[in-house]
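Page 47, continued from p. 46.
Same chain as before, 186 aa.
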Amino acid sequence: MGGGKYSISCMQPRDRVWELDEFERIWWRIPTIEDAEALDALWSPVRKPIGWKWADVLRGREHCLYFLTADAGVLFAFAARPRTVLVGPEPVKVSAVRIDYLEVNPSLGGGKVAPFGLAAIAKYAGDCGATAFVLGAINHPKVLPFYLGSGATPAEGWSCNRNLVPLWYSPDATQILQEIADALEV
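Result:
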């Protein structure tokens, strides 16, 4: 990963290209600090306040930052912990990737990009050897129904700050999302 002294050991997702409606080619990009700063500058004037900047997340050296990019620019960004975690109801725990930050390009208003972003995260989880993924905490009540409708369930036993809801995508939900991403791969 670029960015000099801010680098941590991050998993390189398998090279893939997807097609989604008006976006003829979508691919992974691992950004540098400079890329993250440019994205913050571009998205900040049009986004709702989110409480973080992508460049600061990357500088924190606790997360790996990934962009889903098309010819039109970055469509979706997310930050994952560099190692998998064990989650799920007792006594069965499964390997999962932990996503602490994600954002759809605010000028796109969600649309099909948001569900596609989750499908791409499911593929990323598989690339990491995980069978599930966790969204560390969702803090906006308006988007919670979207995540629940896409297969997420509350993450039992997961602690987070007050007013936040941790969610997880079980192995079955993750597999369904992976199949959606597979169908869009070219």
